[in-house]
Amino acid sequence: MIGLNLVYGMAGAVFAIFAVLALCERRVANAAFYALIAASFLIGDRLGDVANGVLVLALVAIAASGRMRRADAAPVAAARHGARVFVPALVIPAAALAGTLLFKQLPGLIDPKQATLVAVTCGTLIALALCFALLGARPAEPFVAGRRLADDIGWVAVMPQMLASLGAVFALAGVGTVVGDLIGAVVPAGNVPGAVLAYALGMAAFTIVMGNAFAAFPVMAAAVGVPLLIRGAGGDPAVVAAVGMLAGFCGTLMTPMAANFNLMPAALLDLKDRYGVIRAQLPTAIPLLAFNAALLYAMVA
Amino acid sequence: MLVLAGIAVIAGGFLLRFHPLLVIVASAAVTGWAAGLDPLRILATFGHAFNETRYVTAIYMVLPVIGLLERRGLQERARGLVAGLHGATAGRLLAGYLLFRQVTAALGLTSVAGPAQTVRPLVAPMAQAAAERQGATGDAAAEEVKAMAAATDNIGLFFGEDIFIAIGSILLMKGVLDGYGIVLEPFQLSIWAIPTAIAAFAIHGARLLWLDRRLARHTQPPGPAA
What UniProt keywords apply to this chain's record, in alphabetical order (chain A) (predicted)? Predict the structure, then answer.
């Protein structure tokens, strides 16, 4: 069955090529970093948990050594292909769309849970083929250009994965229940505005800490949502759950912990301020959080 | 209670601008230690989770394609498109993208766009070109427009996707409530994402139109190093 094996094989191959190219330019730290990421993609399942942990420590050591270098100035783009350059660019989203719809019909061949990732991988392969066929790229050219982008992104590339792993340690240590108990203890019973505020702000605050509204929801539902808003105040469970989750999403917009949404684009767009995307989101997130709290109160009380 | 020390480490570490990856590892170590886990168990938990979440890093496989297309003038072409559009401003373009992102996400098409797929190669250069045509040249304006393009992508995704019934967060909510004996259909949950989706479009859309007015102020005086 085709699933994450194809996705990780492709990602691993790309990072392995980046590693070789970086080594050719004597960017040793960058090369080692890419080689470790490639190893994680290609043989991570066979390494075992402790070895994967050691791999992470090695990645962190390279990143913290400060020896990873950004790319040199890029050569000037040559716009000699006209509108044809849009074709490969649009193939990836188009393949993601078509594949997501189509692959769900082929559950025996393609893992339905990974349909989108498999589709994006196929789209990338097609786009790469078009780069050679349509734009006359030399064999190494896309990878040289891609390695340059990867050098500019640097170690921030693994930050989302690192934070997700930290979340797993938090979960094992029971951080969620402790925070939930704390918030539950603060809210007096029968105080509906207080409970609504604690729930909406708690969802946002907990999401800011964990970087993920999914981690916050079970905790806040247990501490406030179910006992105080649904059972205590008789609120509609659908409203309490749905609007609470969206309050959490407002928190996602405000936190560096949600690195894949907030720090990765800043790196990808080469912003000078690592937190520039968060700063741009705050003035939308805060009024939207207030809207969600008000909507909850209007529907529950 | 002691396990909250890890949160203090991560918040303090980010605030004091230590290396973020070191801060994350330190926070994991402190949290695990406070919960009485032995160091090997902490390392194994972290390594296991790292291996299980590789899919978030897999998107970088598009870098060779994006890199090559940019070398062949993709961003310049995207800018050229804007030049042909009368009345296109950075704010209006991004507002249109916000609507596109919300609607496609609401249909479950969360991966047709994203920072690597659309924002860097297409949306940000188009918005920048429009801003320059509005007279807002210079680094500060470029930074602001690029950051806003990324922000618009996130906001469109977050406040569109929950309208789709088969998205992860809807299934999570259903699962959690099931545990309390509260049985809901995904449709009941997704319908309640609509008011917030409209509010998000109104608030962020208004900010985008306001961005156009702010960009107009960037026009003069021209930057000294321009």
Answer: Membrane, Transmembrane, Transmembrane helix
CA distance B28 to chain A (A): 6
Per-residue pLDDT tens, chain A, 301 aa: give them: 888 999 999 999 999 999 999 999 999 999 999 999 999 999 999 999 999 999 999 999 999 999 999 888 777 767 677 788 888 888 888 888 888 778 878 878 888 878 878 888 999 999 999 999 999 899 999 999 999 999 988 898 888 788 878 878 887 888 777 877 887 788 877 789 999 999 999 999 989 987 888 878 888 888 889 888 998 889 999 999 999 999 999 999 999 888 889 988 998 898 999 899 999 999 999 999 999 999 999 998 8
Scanning B107-224, the segments in alpha helix (DSSP H) are: 124-133, 139-161, 168-179, 186-191, 194-218
* Residues sharing a CB contact under 8 Å with residue B148, sequence separation 6 or more, in sequence order: A280, B90, B94, B127, B208, B211
Quick one: closest CA in B to A66, which residue?
Answer: B19
ipTM summary value: 0.85
**Which amino acid makes up residue B225?**
A
**Residue of B55, B173, B176 with shortest CB distance to A117:** B55
- Which of A85, A116, A161 comes nearest B54 by C-beta? A161
Residue A189 CB partners (closer than 8 Å, separation 6+): A228, A232
For residue A188, whether the previous peptide bond is cis, meaning omega lies within 30 degrees of 0, is no
Distance from CA of B113 to the nearest CA of A (A): 6
